[in-house]
Amino acid sequence: MVSICVKRISLCLIFCLVIGISHLICEENEPFIIGDIKVAPGDVRSGYLTVPDKEDPGCFIPVTIINGTKKGKTLALVAGVHGYEYPPILSLYRIKQMIDPKSLSGTLVLVHIANLPGFQKRIVYYNPYDWKNLNRVFPGDPEGTSAQRIAYVLTEEVVKKCDCLIDLHCGDANEALIPYCYWMLSGDQKLDNITKEMVLAFGIKHIIIDKSRTKDKSDSKYLGNTVVLYGKPAITTESGYLGRTDEESIARNVKGIISVMRYFEMIEGDPEPVSDPVWIDKYEVIYADMDGLFYPETKMGYYVSKGEKVGTIMDYLGNVKQELKSPFTGIILYIIETPPANKGEPLFEVGRIQKD
Prior knowledge:
By secondary structure, the chain is α+β, with helices and mostly antiparallel strands. It folds into 2 domains: about 30-265, Zn peptidases (Aminopeptidase), CATH 3.40.630.10; about 280-355, CATH 2.40.50.100. The chain is about 25% helix and about 30% strand. The protein is built from 7 helices and 19 strands. The chain has helices spanning about 1-25, 85-100, 115-120, 145-160, 190-200, 225-230, 245-265, and strands spanning about 30-35, 35-40, 45-50, 60-65, 70-80, 105-110, 165-170, 175, 180-185, 205-210, 235-240, 280-285, 290-295, 305, 310-315, 320-325, 330-335, 340, 345-355. The strands form 3 sheets. Strands 3, 4, 5, 6, 7, 8, 9, 10, 11, 12, 14, 17 and 19 form a 13-stranded mixed β-sheet that branches. The radius of gyration is 23 Å and the shape is globular.
């Protein structure tokens, strides 16, 4: 009799333990709040983050929150930091339609167009109200100019409220760019391992090992770097070129996002990491040091040798003023394929392939 009672007690304990574990695994999510938008578990809401007027005009940032029924990671997806970079923007509208909150663990924050003024005016790089590059002014300033205030709102409402982030970019209207990603190293091995897994999961072959980002949290400059300096995993991706809206670039972004969501176990399925990554251990952007016309003499994805001529700058009268050469042997990650050369703006980027 004692033996039977012990067995019954043991079975009850096992049953209770299984129920408890199941409860933890399937723990219900909580409401998620961003700006004035409150989203219940299992719901989807879209709205705007408000950037107030100051000396120059404010704006709105369109966002969608997909709040899963079960607890999990809060993944932020940010597109349109540069307003003429269309494939990432279009990919997020597809993601909005694809993800069912009832089958989602965690929360998805979609920032559809971070730099709405630049998008509306079809301007490369800059915000039209202050002519600042949004991706150089993080973490922002609530009393600053338009781009600085946008960066501040994104930092407060997105960076600080997410667990992880993908900053989605592509070649601007003037940039012929191959797909590649930035793996930003923080020096924290645990964090760096997660970001490495994220960047591999996104599935793009060429990956820059980026040790160059500032460690100054008060002047973090880049969105992705800001997230990393807050101790959270983030990657920056590039898929698209020359301001186009080609299906291949859009689909590549969608596939990468879905794979990262699977890596974080937000949705069912296995991630599809890139099987043959090409690691780039050094990169350099060559900038114009004068105004004029740029004539490229190679193409995106081509390999160049150290000292090889990559392009020429002519003045507005057609006189050759400067020959631009590759600083080292590597691959052309992007190159400007529109004529304007403006002092201080990039002309091309070259990356050195890491040796085995």
